Amino acid sequence: MLQGVTSLTLPRLARWLSAVPPLTWEAADVAVVLGGHPRVRVPAAVDLLEARKVSTIAVVGGQLVDGRPAEVRRGEHWARALGVPDDRLVRLDTEALGTVEEARVVHAAALEHGWTRVVVVTSPYHCRRAMFVFDDIVRDPRIAITVVSTPYDDWSETGWHADPRQRRLVLRELVKLALWKTGLRRLVRPG
User: Fold this and answer.
1) Dihedral over Cα of 148, 152, 155, 157: its sign
2) Each residue's pLDDT tens digit in the chain (191 positions)?
3) Beta partners for residue 91, in sequence order
4) What phi and psi values does residue 188 have, to the nearest 5 degrees?
5) Strand 68-69 to strand 64-65: parallel, antiparallel, or no bridges (unpaired)?
6) Residue 187 forms beta bridges with which residues?
7) Cα gap 44→117, rounded to integer Å
8) How far apart are CA 133 and CA 48, in angstroms?
């Protein structure tokens, strides 16, 4: 009985975490790659750039190391490795420890650069929370935000619960989502 409940419930939970409205814009100003997993997130932004869905890629996130955020460095490395020219790459060099701080940095950058349509690129299990956080933080009618999931992540809707690493990722997302929605987020450190 428990096996049947698990086999039905866990994939539904996974689909809920990763479900976001489809990208309907013909084009956006920027694809913002959130920190955490640039190796799998940057290629999705490059796909959007090559399909002319965005005109620029921005990388954000991480703790300052030698004056620059670590995730920005890693994202920049992957973008260059995938052939993104410097004039199409924006480095948001402000420390951002977690999704909330990344949303604040992106909002400030959107105002500075005049971005009105922003595509946030993240991993599937992080989409729901990223959407909630960006909607709450970027309450600016001049800036439209949409979240897309990278297809390059090895996360599995049907098998995540059998993989210890993916199980940890999902459980952390659920805790962070609960903290965000209840307002208790102020009690924990960013990230």
Assistant:
1) positive
2) 335 445 668 888 888 888 888 888 889 999 999 998 899 999 999 999 999 999 999 999 999 898 889 999 999 999 999 999 999 999 999 999 999 999 999 999 999 999 999 999 999 999 999 999 999 999 999 999 999 999 999 988 888 888 999 989 999 999 988 888 887 766 555 54
3) 59
4) -120, 160
5) antiparallel
6) none
7) 17
8) 22
Phi/psi of residue 155, each to 5°?
-65, 140
Nearest in space to 10 (alpha carbons), one of 169, 175, 160:
160
C-alpha dist (Å) from residue 37 to 41, 142, 156, 186: 6, 29, 16, 25
**Is the CB of residue 92 less than 8 Å from the CB of residue 71?**
no
> Contact 109/90 with Cβ under 8 angstroms?
yes
pTM given for the model: 0.90
- Residue 145 pairs in a beta bridge with 118
Structure tokens at 15: 């689909």
**Structural domains of the chain sorted by starting position, each given as residue range(s) with its CATH number in brackets:** 20-151 (3.40.50.620)
